[in-house]
Amino acid sequence: MSVVTSSSFNFKSLSPSPTRPFPSWINNGDTSPSLLLLREISASFSRRSANSFLKKVSCAKSPDDYHATLKSLNSRGRFPRKSLGQHYMLNSDINHQLAAAANVKEGDFVLEIGPGTGSLTNVLLNLGATVLAIDKDPHMVDLVRERFAGSDKFKVLQEDFVKSHIRSHMLSILEGSDSALAKVVSNLPFNISTDVVKLLLPMGDIFSEVVLLLQDEAALRLVEPALRTSEYRPINILVNFYSEPEYNFRVPRENFFPQPKVDAAVVTFKLKHPKDYPDVSSTKSFFSLVNSAFNGKRKMLRKSLQHISSSLEIEKALGVAGLPVTSRPEELTLGDFVKLHNVIARE
Ligand SMILES: C[S@@+](CC[C@H](N)C(=O)[O-])C[C@H]1O[C@@H](n2cnc3c(N)ncnc32)[C@H](O)[C@@H]1O
User: Fold this and answer.
1) 132 C-alpha vs ligand 1 centroid, how far in Å?
2) Which keywords does this Swiss-Prot/TrEMBL entry list (predicted)?
């Protein structure tokens, strides 16, 4: 595995037409666009880290290594955009591990959010999957459309994933295919990860697995929240209601270009089929109860749920559900919320 360190990269320092003088140790004779870009970036490194960086670049063999990624972006005059969370994956081992976590194989249908330059897409297509990719950046869409123009197993849409009609896109792709359920594999922009989780996890009738590269701390909070902590939130109830989550492994920040300020982690959500969801009369009223409960996080449920029933009735329902009358939301597991909801719904 070749890990590139570019710790001092700064989005703003990257100018499309480099005019700053480059340090003499970088070969000024080569004027290829990617080397100019590389020099611009490297100008902000120390001499030692830049030397080791260049050495690693020259050793890299992947078609999506540091140099290839820069070249690909530079061929379109593109620079990573912070607002779009554009941190490109440089380590093809990680892309392979993402695909392996979802057990991607010949004949699978895979949704990829944010293909970027297509490094993960390439791995998915090589495994024999059909890929629907959605990217908000029209330049990245053009780039991957061109890169995979020869493949009839690739389709890309230029859309904001959060606003996309993903259910109808997937149903039209799966229609008439033998493949029962599709998979999601994605190196996500961190800023839309919560929205993506909320959108995709309730789609157990369409997807079997959702494998995401998330911010490490966010991943831990989603998968291993501790009861009675401030990190325990309604999204933890949602994650466990709709899926079996698993934290796979941490991905150090050095594997991305440009390097983010935080590490990432691969998380697998095995989606439950709707027939296996916890038994509640209405998911809408269940999550409405959960959200109301957490609205008054420090409050006891007999107070925060007063708009549903009187304090006395909530106390009674808590008792019937086998819970202390003084319960607070962060003390209840998914199972406890299900019991409480069903007791209240029966009354
Ligand atoms: C972290 S980069 C990952 C790129 C590529 N998958 C890789 O591993 O190198 C995130 C990608 O998501 C795209 N993106 C950002 N916001 C998006 C949104 N709301 N909907 C769809 N794509 C988005 C960015 O343009 C970028 O290509």
Assistant:
1) 14
2) Methyltransferase, RNA-binding, rRNA processing, S-adenosyl-L-methionine, Transferase
